[in-house]
Write a structure and sequence with these properties.
twelve-stranded mixed beta sheet; 23 helices; 31% helix
Amino acid sequence: MMKHSKWRRRLGRSAALAVVWGLALSTLPAAAAEQTTKVAAPGGLSATIRYTEHGIPHIKADDYAGLGYGHGYAAAKDNICLLADIYLTVGAQRSLYRGADGPTNAYGPARSNLGSDLYFQQVNDSKVVEKALAEPAPLGPRAEVRDIVRGYVSGYNRYLAETGPDGITDPACRGAAWLRPIQDIDVYRQFHALSTSGGGGRMIDAIVDARPPAPGSAASSYGAAPRVEAAVRSVTAGLGGQSQGNGSNAFAIGAEHTENGRGLLLSNPHFAWSGAMRLWEAQLTVPGKMNVSGGGLLGVPLIRSGHTQNVAWSHTVSSAVPLGLYQLQPVPGDPTAYLVDGRPERMTQREVAVRVRDADGTVRTVGRTLWSTRYGPVLSAVFGLPTDWTTDTAYALRDANVGNLRGLNTWFDLNRAQSTKDVQEALVRTQGMPWVNTVASEKSGKALFSGVQVVPHITDELAARCNTALGKAIFPSTGLSVLDGARTDCAWGRAADAVAPGLLGTASLPAHFRDDYASNSNDSAWLSNPRAPLTGYPRVVGTIGTERTARTRMTLTALEERKAGTDGLPGRDFGLRTMQDLLFANRSKIAELVVADTARMCAALPGGRAPAATGTVDAGPACRALSQWDRRFTVDSRGALLFTRFWVKLLGRGAPPWRTPFDPADPVNTPRDLDTANPAVAAAFGDAVAELARLGIAPDAPLGRHQYVVRGGKKLPTHGGPAALGLINVQGHTWRDDMGYGDVEYGASLIQVVSFTDGDCPKVARVLASSQSGDPTSPHYADQTELYAKGQLTQGRFCESEIAASPELRTVELRTP
């Protein structure tokens, strides 16, 4: 293990300065309830970090480089192991330090560390990030962003130099050889990996595994269409599942429907509670230039979803598909060449090599040949589709976000916005949002939904003209195109108002400003507000006039009931408290639609026994639990777990059988009326009853007894549930056949309610459900998780007076010697 002295020498003079100066702790009088720590900073960078309750850093600097410096230092202090693991991933060094078969941390699914490394090594070898960096803004990062990143890198390295590997308290990486200083390129590579996680990141194994067919191997049936239903299910699962569960709700309420006639926003991203997609809170201030508070993804030194003094915004994972496939026609007898307009074109052959450390400590180099085309990398089978590389067919991926560092400029502009107009103009000017919508509300009371983001220039006309048989089978339902790669007239188009070639122009993307409300829960833009449906955009952006998810329907039900005053809450307008109540009511649209029908079916079962895969089971106690259930998903709700398992098993048998089908004229209330006469319904219920009995779980057990997280050896019961049940408060727990629910994979992460007032300080209620630190030894590893488990939010501190009033105020001054 590297000793501290060697570590410091390796970091060089600037890091050594940091060690020499060290930490000088100074405690103010008890009446001030504030601690000040002074830390030296190399290179003329300086920042002030004021910590308030739950370890939230309020970072202030005189310039953007100093702001990044404070951000890097504070983020590393809370999450050094998670951050170092991210840089290990994008540096393609996981196999060297954590074994070829070790735990992956890719921005997308990868079967092994080796697959992840080969994928990211070919990205790094292509120099795509360096090429984007060489571009002027808006294609490349603007000068201020470069300053922030430069400062961030110095701050991260400063913290690492200060502690050394053996001084890290988090057991996940204490003393680890893979803790290393970073460079600016690591931050840009991470952002590029984030941008492409909706494209190439979904297909890591398919890119790495693609091999030319052996001579004499069987050909495919070129142009044959697969079974449509099976193909659509495969792609839907691939496009949805590849996001690692990420999703979101965002509700912007305009002046017409708030208690004070000002804007109001609920930001409710459903992100992973650990790993590369974890969120972290901060306030970033450069006086007179930027003052923004909220949450960001670890390693991205800007606020992803938050608020300034006059506008608040959030993002929701979009239904737009940021990628497309091309079907190629290999040259007969030469599968590594393909025809374009009748002429052969050779594939690009890249030899990729990564280092692997075996269990005995031996380091060896593993090489792989990866293949690419004018469109992008060649694929093996992906999403369960017949996309294998054969002698007469091959498939290539085109990812619209390749080379996208523009999103850093977009978030920089959002971090300075003061109105919904500013937000929309930032989205249009940079077109860097990689795979998310934006919902915003401003102090004056305007609400905004914007689908301006990175979307391939695949018009409906192009799709109709160029989709192959496979594309025609899946595109209408999924938005994933499979275009004819043998024709140059099937290339993605160009738009005069697009920032980069191959993207839809921003005028083609859905957006509207509202005085009542705008919302999104990961469905298409169509019903952002059902009183003013958005239409006219291409299919690749999303569907129009199609069935909404249960969560979208619950969202719209709750918003419309509040406006009508029929939700049981006081008044008819929204405020800070009613918005929290809307989220933590833990209502389920599916439960409200089908529980009564299911309970009646249950009561009518012959002999009180339900059919199950293991034989009939006694359904009596389960029937009583279901009939008495409050149809909510609070920790005390009895019957919620039974219903969850029933619905999951019913979905596993295909689409739920409804008696009243979807009606585009009544999209919130249809489909409805579960067809309990369908044998699949009773069978799914019986299987759920049998499953709980096998695990020793009573059907009327309180939800929180079996749905919980463990932090520091303490069980914290959690409310909420799966998105498929139409809950706004989403919790994605792992289900294990041997024990039931395990830990949270993803779900409500940073919940923020921002209410603008007549004064200068927005009222903010907030909680980071995963807590601020991934270090189990930190006091901020589980403190906010405990609050979330109780359905509590904390006061957000934005204005100087609010920060100064914190009873836990502690200040760290990062200064040059």
